[in-house]
User: What shape does this take?
Amino acid sequence: MSTYYKLVLFVRFLGYFSLLTGLLALLFILGPLGLAEARYRSDQLLGVKRTLPKIIKSDQTQATTSATPLPKVSLTPLSIDPIDTNFGIVIEKINANSKVIADVSPTDERQYGRALLQGVAHAQGTAYPGQKGNIYLFSHSTDAPWNIIRFNAVFYLLRELEPGDRVVMFYQNKRYDYLVYDKRVVSSTDVSFLTNQYDQSVLTLQTCDPPGTLINRLIIRAKLEE
Assistant: This one.
C-alpha cells in the first residue's frame, strides 16, 4: 500500500471520527431538551394529559393538599409520581418533575452549579412553599454553553405556561398548589423579581430565554391557590 493511499485513508478516518464525535457531543448537549420537546409535542398531538393525583404514591412519606397521610395507591400510566415530596416541584402541563435544592446562592456559580446537577435551585433568603413572601426557584448557568442547556432542561418548557396553569410544590411532605398569573421576559440584569416582597405566598420561576442562551430571563409568577 502506497504512502499516498495510507494518507488518504487516515484523512478519511479522521474526518469520519470527527463527524461522529461531533454528533455524539451534540446529542449529549441537546438530548434532554429534544426529549422534553418531543414528549410535550407528542402529548399535544395525541391529546394526552398528565396529572398529579391527590393521593401520592411515595416510597417515603405521603403528601396531599391537606398534608394528611393517606394509603398508597396505584398510579395510572399517565399519572405523575413526584420525585421528592420533602422539597420538590411538579408542573403537570409540561411534565416537569424535579427535586428542589434549598438555600442556594444565585450569585455563587460554583454553588448553584452543584445544586443544578441535582434539580432546581431555591434562592437563598427567599420564602418556602406555603409561607408568605417570594419563593424564588431558578435554573440557569453562566459558564459553559453545554451547561446552560443542561441546567435548564427541567424548566425548558416554561414558555408553554399561561395564566391559570397549575404549578404544584411539595415542602416537608405537604402539597401546595400555585396558579400562574404572570409571564414575562426580562433583561438578564433585572434582579427585581428576586428581591420583590409580597404579603401573600408567591412562587417565582426563572430560566433562560431563549433556551440555551444568556440573553434574557423568562419569569413565571404564580399565587398560592386558596
User: Anything to note?
Assistant: Residues 16 and 22 are 10 Å apart (CA to CA).
